[in-house]
Model the fold of this input.
Amino acid sequence: MNITLDTLLLRRSVRSFDGRPLVAADQDALEAVLAEAGPGPFGATPRIRLLDAAQAGLGDTDRAPTRIGAYGVVSGARAWLVGAIGKSPDACADFGYVFESILLEATARGLGTCWLGGTFSRGAAARAVGLAEGELLPAISPVGYPADRRTLVDAAFRLGAGSDGRKPWRELFFEGEPGRPLPASGLGDWAGIFEAVRRAPSASNRQPWRLVLDAPGRVRLLFAENRAYNRALDPVRVQELDLGIAMRHLAEACAATGRTGAWARLGEDAAKPAAPFAYHATWLGDA
Ligand SMILES: Cc1cc2nc3c(=O)[nH]c(=O)nc-3n(C[C@H](O)[C@H](O)[C@H](O)COP(=O)(O)O)c2cc1C
Done:
């Protein structure tokens, strides 16, 4: 399915579902997307399973899905996306990039999803996906039909994370060097592309990335890491998931506006001054 700019701009995390299992058409479409999902930009390929609670040996009652979702944060979900990836230096960025593409496909079909990096039972999810030695289980997501109203826990979570807000443009997007704000006017399609990145989900809505427009179609991605937060779930690097997600949003937004391009890691860009941030990757694409 085509990910449009609207899909990227209008997606919101959904934690309140209506309790219906996925209909066959949605189940088949997600399975097809999973079968086609390739590697992330740094070469690692996650394995992602679409599980319903009964299939996963988690029981078949309405309570079982809550067990994997844990802590009552998610309600009414009957299907889960659970992913694993082999340990490597960029495993979490690759996982973020690929898992987000699945969530965007689900969003485009009208399904609700929510990245869960912390508030779920890692043990139950690891058993469900058959986690192997040498693999990480970075995150999971419920997938299903949004309920008409959010539960109180869902609403409280959104409030706590400030989920409706985003950092202002001048803090996120720069021209030529970090700290020099990118003027929002005169960008043409690129205004929508940057906004699609700004709307990307991130853990606790911290948005730990900055973009520097160095030349038409050439964008440097910098990492604004909060070390303690990023490493709190070691060996999972939660903010590197966020980097991968942001990279996916930029790639999808470029595709949605008819552009081609790819992410690369460039020695010459790594050598450019980036303080207080750290260089991560460069988008090389059409202007
Ligand atoms: C890597 C990652 C981990 C997250 N972990 C959790 C989590 O453990 N529990 C939760 O309720 N939401 C979690 N979220 C959802 C974020 O809180 C949410 O994306 C952010 O507040 C922005 O809201 P939005 O997705 O509705 O735009 C996570 C998001 C990301 C990207």
